[in-house]
Every structure is written in structure tokens, then in C-alpha cells.
Amino acid sequence: MEFSASGTFLHYWQTSGHNDGLKIDPETGNVWALQNEDGNPNLVVISPTTTAAIAYTFATPDNGGTGTPGGYDDITFLNGRVYMTESNPDPTSTGSAVVQVRLPADPAVNNQVIIVRQVLPNNTTATNPSGQTVSLFLSDPDSMTASGNNLVFTSQADNEVLTIHNPGPHQFVTVVPVHDALSNSFEVDDTLFTPSGAGAILVVDSAGTVYEITGPAVTKGLVLSSADASNALGTFDPKTGLFTPIITGFAGQPKGLAFLPTGSLGISGELVKKDSMRKCIDHLIECKQELQAVRLSKENLAQELAAVHKDREEMRHEVQHLRERLASLEGRQSATPIIVPVVAPSAASNDPSMKTD
């Protein structure tokens, strides 16, 4: 669903399946929406400008197996490339945890298969906070974001957050176990690296409520994570893995996090502009529809007037014809002589005065 910065409903799109990952391509402004993260995944790319939606499919994920089919969970755009976490791996899988994806050559055709390349396997090694290299099997790659030139993602059920530094041929990976101040393991979902203090942090929970966090607490460099198991939003230290709850009492489990910058060049300003533009476009569409209706009414009226004129002409010809017939009848009657006999023939033959000798 699309809303304006003021909360006005603008549009909605119906997708096939359960929605999970949802990100905006910073280069095109298109919205990428992932469905069915635990099996049979698909992707829909939406243009908020034209409202067009193109669906794509995936080949069978390489992390599937006999136990689970595998899927794709979240999306991140970094340096012109698109990355996804590959979720719900089979325990016996040697497939991917993170992949790079590319749309097919013709993006206007529905149901084409997305091109996928492995970036990080789910059987991997990483450096922990103590500087040790540890072997990992990532059982639940989940939410992912970018920080600088790095990809940061959660392996949720493993209570770990991993960072792929400078993804590419020379990348390296670090991992931190998530824990609280008492060293209790914590499961976190989304993580946000606040890029600026001028803006608002948005939080959505499992009840569908969207919260806005503003004020002096919103500072550049603030790192927040949502811990849905404990219904808390807290600060997160990506170097040590320390999670500190700061906000509780959500209507549901806190899930997605986003930053909404203010200012004429920020997203909120762009949304306001887009909202105003959308209203102008809607008004122009209404005017066009009204003009078309007026033109149609005018055409119908012209046709009705033409029919009336035709009927009048036919009636005038009929009246003229009737007049001519009446005049013809009157002329015949005036030209016919009227003979009135003076004496009846039978009476004349019996009259003696009419006889001759």
C-alpha cells in the first residue's frame, strides 16, 4: 500500500503470496517486494509513478533440500547492485546465505526468471569480536541492510548479526553474537543505521501499526534493532553485539525499520511533491473524463436534433403530399358537369300535348 507523507492513502497493489522483504531502488524509485520467503518465492517490481507491477520468478533456491524448499527474505541495494538473503535453508544444504540478483534483459515481461549469483554460502567462516575465525552454518538468514560499503544481515534463529565487508572478490565477513547486558542471547529482526539526525524513524509492528520516533534521540550513527521475541526496540552495537532495549509496549512485535529524512531533498519532501503531483494528475484525469462526457452528450444531442429535423422534413413532405391530393380531388369535382333532368322521360311520353299528328 502507498501513503503520502501526511498519511493519505494513495494506492495499493495485490501480490501473489505472503509479502516480506520490501525495499525501494534508489536509482529508479521502483519498489521491490518479495513474497513467500520460506518456499516458492517470487518478486514483484512496482512503479509508484505509473502503478505498473511486473512479476518475476526464481529458479529453485540452491539452499533447499528434502526438509525445507528454501526461499528469499530481504533485499538491499548497494553500489548499483541488488542483494538478497536466501532464507529457510535445509539443514543439509550447502547453498547460499546471500546472493546477488539481476532482472532479466526485458523487464517488461511477466514471470521471467531472475538471474542469481552466490555472494556468501551458508556454510562459511567469519571473524568474531575476539578476532578468532569461526565456522558457521547460517540456519536463518533474514533481514538485511547496508552500512557504508558493507552488507549487514541477521541470522535470526542463530542470534547472530553478520557483516560482509566490501562485497566482491576481496570481501571478508565478521560476526557478532547478539546479547543483552546480562549476556543473554537475543534474537533481533530488522536493523537500521540512522544516516542523519534530521528526520524520523519509522517502526512497524506485527499488528500493522506504524510508529514515528522523532526528537533529539534521533542522531546520525544511531543503530537500532527490533527484537520481536521480546517486543522491544533497542540500540545495537555492531562491534560487540550488545542489544539494549529502549522502547517497549508495542501493539505487536516490532518488525520493519525505516528512516524518513526531512527537508526539500528528503524522502518526505519528495512524497509531498509526489502527492501534490498525483492530485494534479487525478484532477486532470477527472477534467478529461468530464470533457469526454460533455463531448459524448453533445454528439448524442446532435444526433437527436438531426433525427428531429429528419422527422420534420418527412412530415412536411407528407403534409405537402396531402395538400396536393386534396387539391387534385377538389379540381376533379369542379370540372365534372351536374345534369338535372326537367321532365322525367316516362311523364313526357304520356303527355298528349307532346304528341304530334
What does this molecule look like?
- This protein has 357 residues and is α+β, with helices and mostly antiparallel strands.
- It has two domains: 258 residues, Neuraminidase (6 Propeller); 62 residues.
- The protein contains two helices and 24 strands.
- It has a five-stranded mixed beta sheet, with no helix packed on it. A four-stranded antiparallel beta sheet has the order 7-8-9-11, with no helix packed on it.
- β3 and β4 form a beta hairpin.
- The N and C termini lie far apart (132 Å).
- About 3% of the residues have low confidence.
Helix proportion range: 10-25%
Tally the beta strands.
24
CATH architecture of the largest domain: 6 Propeller
Report the sheet-strand fraction: 35-45%
Using brief descriptors, characterize the structure shown:
single chain; 357 residues; alpha+beta; Neuraminidase; five-stranded mixed sheet; four-stranded antiparallel sheet; 2 helices; 36% strand
Summary, kept brief:
The protein folds into two domains: 9-266, Neuraminidase; 267-328.
Write the layout of secondary structure elements.
Layout lengths: L1 E2 L5 E3 L7 E6 L6 E5 L6 E5 L6 E5 L13 E8 L2 E7 L8 E7 L9 E2 L1 E7 L1 E5 L5 E5 L3 E7 L2 E6 L4 E6 L6 E6 L13 E3 L5 E7 L4 E4 L9 E5 L4 E5 L6 E6 L5 E8 L5 H69 L9 H5 L8
Parallel strand pairs: 6-10
Antiparallel strand pairs: 1-2, 3-4, 4-5, 5-6, 7-8, 8-9, 9-11, 12-13, 14-15, 15-16, 16-17, 18-21, 19-20, 19-24, 21-22, 22-23
